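User: Could you check the structure of this?
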Amino acid sequence: MINQFKFFWLAMLALSLILITGCSTSKNRGKTKDGVEDFDAFYQKFHTDRDFQFSRLKFPMGGSSIDDNGEKKWTKKNWQPLKVKVFDVDKSKYKVTFKKTDKTFVQKVWIEGSGFSSECRFELINGKWMLVYSLEENL
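Assistant: Sure, the predicted structure tokens are below.
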């Protein structure tokens, strides 16, 4: 009986440790050891979750949308969610560049000689990645 009692409490202790470890791991998912958000996890979620994307737009945002009708500054009302990650752009049609540092990620996509170009700049602000600049030209 005593061995069964010890086994029960050891099993409960092991289960508790597993649950505690699992909860703290899921809570910190997407974060590095220093509490900074992992860019790759952020970038994936940014392009697949519309609500998350809107939560990571820094208004007033630098840049604008420019077309034949003129220039419009970005607002929450006229923002068109980004859906395609720069890594997934069809490089047979578009020119693509991107550069990542510890605190910024800049991506550019354009069609040579067409008047179309797109540039976005993400910045790390208080440990979270934010889109702070977007220039869309379609002339």
